Task: structure prediction
Amino acid sequence: MLLYVHIPFCDSKCFYCSFGSYVEKHHLKAAYIDSLLKQLDFELKRFEAKKNIESVFIGGGTPSTLEASYYEKFFKKIEPYLQDGAEITVEANPNSAKQEWIANMKNFGVNRISFGVQSFDNKKLKFLGRTHNSKQAINAVETAYRCGFENISIDIIYETALDTEKLLKKDIDTAFFLPINHISAYALTLEENTPFFEKKEVKKDDEHLGYFIADMIKEKFEQYEISNFGDYKSKHNLGYWQHKDYIGVGCSAVGFLKNRRFYVCEDIEEYIKEPLKISVENLSKQDLIIEKIFLGFRSIVGVDIKILDEDMLKRAEILKNENKIQEKNNRLYNKNFFLADELALFLIG
Ligand SMILES: C[S@@+](CC[C@H](N)C(=O)[O-])C[C@H]1O[C@@H](n2cnc3c(N)ncnc32)[C@H](O)[C@@H]1O
Ligand code: SF4
Result:
């Protein structure tokens, strides 16, 4: 079982981002954590958690906007539920994650840190609405390494209007110079309700850049999902694609248990008042099969042949004959993650 914790605060809003976060509600931090701990109690019971949480992911928003002391009670509470060797990741922004904060996280038992770097090019960073510069990003990674973090990941965004092969090569060359063992590389998506949404010109629609950046990263790291590459593969990421149960706490978090999905309310004030106001979606057998096919083809997880009906099996044969997927130990594996959705849709029929 996995645990996701949402921290809905950011210092500023990047032009592309639609994740649930607030820049002007930092005064609500203490009340927010109180409610989050109440919801956590409730979820640990609902999920019948014992010592079986294999990974924790504290994401956002920007977890590094929250001073370390706010996390103390949280880590105390989850301690008895963690499996030995559990992966504990925290997301951090290069300008707010200072040495003291990073060292405190390490002391709490966090063993993986993921920085929202996006690029090492100062012009591109400004273009994206980021508040850090290249030097700060490099410093943040090096500081985490000096604090003892062995698992460091960075996020990179590509397919912006400024991207060229030369710029992306420089981004990845710089990344490889740093003590990281994981990169998440995301194609820029123009999300609704963001300043970028109406500006189609900010995105370079060139799918070749995806292959270009992936090939470069693959020289050092294995691609284990469309956007994820690593020497070390995140247990948390893999857990989602393996369709494991996950607890989601914090406003706009999502949880999943067997055949139910839980949606926590998105509004922070409402969440603080009523952290247990959670809506439930019941998933049918067919919904679960479709999800498993989509998630399996996006990643190295693959799809168990046993879940496919006769028609799907026939279409799988077609994909195998076209050399798009391969079968190994009764599972189907996609050979090109960038075609994942297309292949999944074909298989589902
Ligand atoms: C929710 S953010 C958290 C990281 C942290 N707040 C930071 O930005 O430093 C996780 C990652 O999602 C990616 N992301 C968010 N919106 C995106 C978009 N519209 N297109 C592509 N990637 C996006 C960024 O790479 C970002 O680092
Ligand atoms: S990318 Fe990160 S810092 Fe920027 S608005 Fe989104 S969550 Fe906040």
In short: The radius of gyration is 20 Å. The first strand starts at residue 2 and ends at 7. The mean pLDDT is 97. Residues 16-17, 19, 60, 62, 91, 93, 116, 118, 155, 157, 186, 188-189, 191 surround S-adenosylmethionine (ligand 1) (CB under 6 Å).
